Every structure is written in structure tokens, then in C-alpha cells.
Amino acid sequence: MAKGPGGGRAQEGRAMKPTFKLEGIYTPLITPFHADGGIDFDGLADLVEHLVAGGVHGLISGGSTGENYAETVEERLELARFIAERSAGRLPVIVGTGAMRTPDSIALAEGARAMGADAILLATPPYSVPTEAENAANALEIDRAAGLPVILYNYPGRMGVSMGRAFLDIVGASENVVGIKESSGDVNRIHTLACDYPNIQMSCGMDDQALEFFAWGARSWICAGSNFLPEEHVALYEACAVRGDFATGRRIMTAMMPLMGVLEQGGKFIQCVKHGVETAGLRAGPMRPPLQGLNADEKAELEAVIATLKTAVAAIVEGE
User: Fold this and answer.
1) Contact 185/206 with Cβ under 8 angstroms?
2) Domain spans of the chain?
3) Quick check: pTM over 0.85?
């Protein structure tokens, strides 16, 4: 597939290191559902067009924001193929391979390769709590199945263990491993990655630390909020990573912090993101069980925060 501003992959059949530059805002797409739980592909098509128009730099299929844990492998591959076909080479497409069972992750990795995806997102299997060596062996098996650039996904809060130094020392030796989405929330991990693993591109995966990531050299932000606020997230990236204007970046981040608080509180992250998509005039639909939607007060709070944020960021951007 053709490459957007953020990605590029080595040509098939050439014995060279795959390349993929993590540059910009990458959106882990929600999965719109109908009331009966079926996938709303028309709603998903509209979301892809919304994100392309909003200026994001890449699309991620099959992340936790897309409710991957409530979908079959076949559904996840169907969603990934649809997103890749709909984007039609306008943006890089990354396919999430996270799953509890290694054979499922391998099937997703092989599917990503077959559909011509630009990269895969590779997480620790949840619940099993592997050792560093076990986790590394698992990651390398998925890496071999994909044969694509690999973006690691460190999220110990969901997975139970961290991708520590022993893991990174083993897996980082693979030429395919080009980046890491860091979602630990530990600012010391930013320092470790920036100073000790400069060969692995660091991407912000903890929304309220985006400014810190950019200050330490990250060039990308994988952020669910960009599903419904793409221009505002792009504005922060451009201020900090493109222009190095951290004074403006701090003003934008200050305006965005109330949203971070709403998204992260009460364990209703996906519900908030899906309602945010609805406020943008798009269809998101319900969550699949066990999650349930926001109540009226929660919706009103989120809508007020979004409206204030949009006004504040627009004023900052217009005043530059």
C-alpha cells in the first residue's frame, strides 16, 4: 500500500531492515457497533474519512480502544482489512496483534502481512504474567510470523507485567522492532527509553504525559482521543515535535488536561471515547459486554469538557 507521512516499509523480497517512522498522531480506531452487536462498517468508513480529513498520520486497527478483547480473530482481521481498503494508502495502517493466546496473535500477524499492513502493534499477552524471557520469546515468534515493522506496546496496567530491560535487550535486537508505545505511566520509563534504547522509537501511550514524551524526543502520540478530536491532537504534535514550541505546547496541553481526567476516571475510557465520537457527529454505537454506556450526567460532563477544549485550542492556534 502507498505510504502516508508517517510510514514506510522495505520492499518485499529485499533483505533489508524494514523501516517505519513513527511521526505524528496515530489513532487506535474504535469499532462502531449496531444495537444488536454487529459491526457497523458504514460507521467505520465514516470514521476513517473523518480521521483522514482531520490530519492524523496513521491508523491502528485492533487495539483495546477498538474492543479487541470482545471480538473474534476473524472479526479483527475483517476490521483490519476494511480499514486498510478504506484508507486506500492515504495513511499507514498498523494492525494490533494483542491476544491471550499466542496462536491468535500469530494468526493476526500473518493476516497483517497478507493484507499489506505497514506494521503491527505487539503487546504482552494479558493475564498469563510471563517472565521477561517468556514474553520475549513470545514476541519474537509473533515478529517472525508478521515479517513487518513491529511497534511494541507496554501497558503493564492491563497486561500484568512490564516490558523491562531484559525483554527490550532480547527483542530490541530484532531488526523489525522499530518502536514502542509506552503506556506504563512511569515517567522514568521515558528516561530509560530515550537514553538507553534510542534505536527503538518512543511513542506516547499515556495521554497526560504527551508533553513529557515530546520533550524527551518522541515524535508520535498514539491517542484514542484523536478519534473525535483529531485536529486538537495534531496541534499539540505540531507545536512540540515539529516546531519545538513548548510554550504553545504547554498551553494546548493545559487545555487538554480536563479531557484526560474525564477519560481516565472511573474505568470508562472506551465509553467516553465512543461518546466523544458521537459528539463529532459520527456513529459509534454501544459497547460489547461486559461494558455499558455512560449515563446522562457522564455524557453531559464529557460534552462540556470537549466544547471547552475545542474553543480553547482553536483560540491558541488562531493566535499563533
Assistant:
1) yes
2) 24-243
3) yes
